[in-house]
Amino acid sequence: MAFGTQDETDDVMNEINMTPLVDVMLVLLIIFIITVPVMKHSVNVDLPQATNQPQDAKPETIRLSVDAQGAYFWNENRIDDKDLPRLLQVEATRTPQPDLHIRGDKAVRYERVAQLMAAVQQSGLRKIGFITEPKVN
């Protein structure tokens, strides 16, 4: 059953739908209302002048290595396992704390690296990084 005749469906709609245009204009208006106050500095403040020396105190970097046999090296100097917590504790109390770079041989047992990381965590050092070599294709 047809709701209209053939003549009614052939008429071309001559009106433009204005709703999307109005929506876009309202969005643009809201964006401009929000951004204009941010771009304009309305409060003029006369700031005081001060001179200071920039501090270039860069923290020391400690290289802690584990070789293939599981031995620890502190900046390329071999250390005993019993000395490691004491050395880490001393470095953790320094200000600023040094960066600790851990280098583990790929053949070393994971247990040795895990023990090292546990000792570092217990000492309180916060700046820890792992050093790797880029993969060669």
As an assembly, this protein is single chain
Q: How many strands in all?
A: 5
* Strand arrangement across the biggest beta sheet: 3-2-1-4-5
* Averaged pLDDT: 84
Level-1 CATH class name of the domain at 61-130:
Alpha Beta
Q: What characteristic shape results from the CA principal axes?
A: elongated
- Low-confidence segments, ≥5 residues, pLDDT <50? none
- Could you give the order of the helices and strands? HHEEEHEHE
The separation of the N and C termini measures: 73 Å
Number of helices: 4
Class computed from helices, strands and strand pairing:
alpha/beta
Q: Determine the CATH topology of the domain at 61-130.
A: Nucleotidyltransferase, domain 5
Largest sheet: 5 strands, mixed
The percent of residues in helical segments reads 25-40%
Estimate the strand proportion. Answer: 15-25%
Proper CATH architecture of the domain at 61-130 = 2-Layer Sandwich
Rounded to an integer, what's the Rg over CA atoms?
34 Å
